[in-house]
Specification:
The complex is a heterodimer of chains A (314) and B (539). Chain A has 314 residues and is mainly alpha-helical. Chain A is 78% helix and 0% strand. In chain A, helix 5 packs across helix 8 and helix 10 packs antiparallel against helix 13. The model of chain A has no long low-confidence stretch (mean pLDDT 88). In chain B, strand 2 and strand 3 form a beta hairpin. Chain B has a seven-stranded mixed sheet with strand order 8-9-10-1-11-22-12, with helices on one face. A six-stranded mixed sheet of chain B has the order 14-21-13-20-18-19, with helices on both faces. Chain B is α+β, with helices and mostly antiparallel strands and 539 residues long. The chains are: A mainly alpha (314), B alpha+beta (539). At the A-B interface, helix 2, helix 3, helix 7 and helix 12 of A face helix 5, helix 11 and helix 12 of B.
């Protein structure tokens, strides 16, 4: 098992290097001059050539791209992602400050989505074409079709403006997370319900399920211990992808609910051509996604003995 | 009664403004406040016992590092700091921490400072605080005025000279900007130690900034005890927060103005900012049709500004013939006549220039279609919606085909402008200082030889040449307000009435949704100059 994890970790190094090159190149290719943006953001609408040159030198932007990349990568390896052009704050610290907000929101949304989706998907599969199944499928279709921004506004209108039981936006109290988490959870639940249903249907018609039933196992054991466990591989895979995407920042939902996570932060950075933040973000979230994928891969070992066997046979 | 000092203060401000207008002297009172009439109108209203205001504002734009921090100053002015001079809602320079000023040739402004002013920690405000604040900006590159370490000199405890590095007689008009706020000498700038009517109590990055009343404020104790500014980046969320009763004031998009009813009203600035089209007169191949004066003039006469105001801006604008708020130009503004829709004249201009309608109604000349590219994206494309499509339809009526290009952000817009790939450029913005030459100078002065592409991007496309430059030079070098206004008007008249390079579309109001419990809130067109000390809440 440890060897498996070690080898998976080793695979991450070239991928991580690729991400860092991509992050740096993307920022370089983006149109616009960050120096002007910084000066204008500071109230200098028409910066003089001297001001532009001085700040460009101060930020090291007068150096050739490869030199800047080498310096940036060297610092990044030591945990220094530079300072934000816009806020002047260390990028890594800013990401670390904001990431827990995004992580809590993502985890809550995905957990809530799973709590809704897995039981509903199982019931839907077990009672195929029943009224419950029809309702679940319709709900999943609507949930998957409705754009998150639209859903967010609907939830605010209902819970905050009409009923006034939840706040419109913000992050200062625990109840502020309810509506953004619900918005994201509904989208997640919709796709996971459909996936759970189809994965369960596929497993329920397998020979091993028929064998388990013929052995006289109770239906609950057949469903939970045998069929669901095998269906979980697909569910865990999609959940991992969903979680990784949300950990990269749910930009629209964070913006609407004024949730100070990394999604909104990086979008602002893109508009202000804040290179260190953009590069740091791509590297940071790329690393997070790689680690989530690693966790998903490791979970396969536990879920599916065949993965372990495959490992031993090498 | 608590209102009386406010009424007296407001009345004093109004009286001061009138005196200043009549005599050309500086009024004796404080920062731009609400008109006396507004305060008097609320004299009978019973005030709420809890004077705590919640305001929704756009995303947090503050920097939080010691060298360039601007917490409480800019872009959200939380009134923690004062500036030497302020900008009234009708764009006049008013006394702030300076009560008087005089120009001293060749390049110096001498300011007499207000006595008895204290910082929030109780220490006295003196000239050394001004010197230190100016030096701080010098270390950041010199700011808009272009100051150096030695630009500010204390002449006495309450007198200071400010001399920009290079000749800049518009420094006075630029000093109104909150980026020139005066902080306590040697203070930790991230702690925001100012002399303003409110003092910083809490700042949570990207969430809120909270200020409390400064009861020792030199212009009188504010009625509001506390203001919480909540950073809500999404405009629709701000409107919903208003409707949910979570905030009492919020800027709102023009589309939402009509939806606010019941407990809310819409408050608009007294004057409008600008939305205008600039026509490329130096275009390279493919974008060179703007060189033809007949086409530029036809474009100007094709647009129905009344409809722009009523339909596009939904009544939240005024018809504008000047590029910037006309008030800055004073009485000179009336010399700019501008254009109004006259389709027959527009068509005749094109006919006389040899542009004949083709089979599809689009004009042609020597085998070339009269087809133009309109670039929309400053400050962002959303602001202009649906003006481009509206203009496109009106241009088609006179036989001009317009292709609309939307740029995703300002940087992309500027990149395209630097490359000159466009015929008509649509922009909107606000005037943040009292310098009437600022915008014409920035956008239309001839490019500086050897200057970089982006610095010269506007001039490369729009600069009319020597006559305009001469007017701008006079504007830069004049010392009297009247001369500055005259020179700026000359420059603008050339752009709008003579060369038709600029087609002003609308003077766009800044719009705020406010709870009906909010009293004496006067919307400043430039949000960075918004004042809060006169605001109060009724029961």
């Amino acid at each position: 098992m440890l060897r498996y994890i070690a080898r998976r970790l080793a695979y991450l190094i070239p991928v991580w290097l690729g991400i860092s090159i991509l992050a740096f190149a993307l920022a370089l290719l983006a149109p616009g001059d960050p120096v002007r943006q910084i000066l204008q953001a500071g109230g200098i609408d028409a910066p003089s050539a001297e001001q532009v040159i001085a700040l460009r030198r101060e930020l090291g932007l007068d150096q050739p791209g490869p030199v800047r990349f080498a310096i940036w990568l060297g610092n990044a390896v030591r945990g220094d992602l530079g300072r934000s052009y816009s806020t002047g704050e260390p990028v890594l610290q800013s990401l670390i400050d904001r990431f827990p907000r995004t992580a809590v929101l993502a985890l809550l949304a995905v957990s809530l989505g799973l709590v809704i989706a897995v039981p509903l998907g199982i019931v839907s599969a077990l009672f195929r074409d029943s009224v419950v199944d029809q309702i679940a499928r319709l709900g999943a279709l609507v949930g998957a079709s409705i754009p998150s921004f639209w859903l967010a506004y609907l939830l605010i209108l209902f819970f905050a403006v009409q009923l006034r039981i939840l706040p419109v936006a913000g992050a200062s109290e625990p109840r502020h997370i309810v509506l953004p988490a619900l918005t994201l959870a509904i989208g997640a639940a919709a796709s996971l319900t459909r996936l759970t249903r189809s994965a369960m249907l596929e497993e329920l018609f397998q020979d091993y399920v028929r064998t388990a039933r013929s052995k006289g196992l109770r239906e609950r054991a057949v469903v939970v211990t045998h069929a669901l466990r095998n269906a979980l591989i697909a569910i865990v895979t999609i959940t991992g992808i969903r979680l990784a995407a949300l950990l990269g920042g749910a930009v629209i939902v964070e913006t609407i609910f004024a949730w100070p996570g990394i999604g909104k932060y990086v979008v602002d950075s893109i508009f202000s051509r804040d290179y260190p933040t953009i590069q740091g973000f791509v590297l940071f979230t790329g690393t997070v996604v790689l680690l989530v994928n690693l966790a998903v891969d490791v979970s396969y070992v536990w879920l599916d003995p065949r993965v372990r066997l495959g490992e031993k046979s090498r | 009664m608590a209102l009386q000092p406010v009424i007296r203060r407001s009345a004093a401000v109004l009286a001061g403004v009138l005196v200043a207008a009549a005599c050309g002297a500086q009024p004796p009172s404080g920062p731009a406040a609400s008109p006396a009439g507004t305060a008097a109108g609320t004299a009978k209203v019973e005030l709420a016992t809890t004077q705590e205001l919640m305001v929704a504002t756009a995303a947090d734009g503050y920097r939080n590092d010691a060298t360039r921090t601007n917490i409480g100053m800019y872009p959200l002015n939380a009134n923690i700091f004062d500036t030497l001079v302020t900008l009234s809602p009708d764009y006049q320079v008013m006394p702030g921490l300076a009560t008087q000023w005089e120009f001293r040739a060749p390049n110096t402004y001498r300011f007499t400072l207000r006595p008895g002013v204290k910082f929030h920690d109780g220490t006295a405000f003196t000239a050394k605080d001004v010197v230190w604040s100016i030096q701080r900006i010098a270390k950041q590159g010199g700011g808009t005025i272009g100051v150096s370490d030695t630009s500010a000199v204390a002449v006495g405890d309450l007198m200071v000279d400010i001399t920009p590095k290079a000749p800049n007689l518009r420094a006075l008009q630029q000093l109104v900007h909150p980026s020139w706020s005066i902080a306590k000498a040697e203070s930790d700038t991230t702690k925001a130690m100012g002399t303003g009517p409110f003092k910083l109590t809490e700042y949570v990055k990207a969430e809120r900034i909270v200020v409390a009343a400064n009861d020792d404020y030199w212009a009188g104790k504010p009625t509001l005890r506390k203001i919480t500014f909540r950073f809500l980046p999404d405009a629709n969320t701000r409107v919903l927060a208003l409707q949910a009763g979570e905030v009492q004031i919020s800027d709102i998009p023009k589309e939402s103005a009509k939806t606010l009813t019941g407990d809310f009203s819409v408050s608009r600035s007294k004057v409008g900012a600008y939305e205008a089209m600039y026509i490329n007169i130096h275009g390279k191949q493919g974008y060179d049709l703007g060189k033809d004066p007949a086409i530029r003039q036809a474009i100007a006469y094709a647009i129905d500004k009344k409809v722009v105001v009523e339909s596009v801006w939904q009544g939240n604008a005024e018809i504008s013939q000047t590029m910037i708020p006309a008030g800055i130009l004073g009485p000179e503004a009336s010399r700019i006549s501008g254009t109004n829709r006259d389709v027959a004249k527009a068509k005749k201009l094109l006919d006389d220039a040899g542009w004949r309608a083709g089979a599809d109604g689009i004009r042609e000349k020597a085998g070339r279609k009269l087809s133009l590219t309109m670039v929309v994206g400053f400050p962002n494309a959303d602001v202009h919606k649906p003006m481009p499509e509206f203009a496109q339809a009106q241009f088609k009526e006179i036989g001009i085909d317009v292709k609309i290009v939307i740029t995703p952000d300002t940087a992309t817009y500027e990149k395209r402008l630097a490359s000159g790939e466009g015929d008509i450029w649509v922009e909107a913005g606000s005037q943040n200082d009292a310098n009437p030459c600022f915008l014409p100078d920035l956008l239309f002065a001839s490019p500086r030889p050897g200057g970089d592409e982006e610095a010269n991007m506007y001039g490369n496309s729009f600069a009319p040449g020597a006559t305009f430059d001469a007017a701008i030079k006079r504007c830069r070098e004049s010392t009297s307000t009247a001369d500055v206004q005259k020179a700026a008007t000359d420059a603008m008249k050339l752009l709008v009435d003579e060369q038709f390079i600029v087609v002003p579309l609308a003077g766009t109001y800044r719009i705020n949704g406010i709870s009906k419990k909010v009293l004496d809130f006067v919307v400043h067109q430039a949000g960075v100059h918004q004042r809060w000390e006169t605001v109060k809440l009724s029961k």
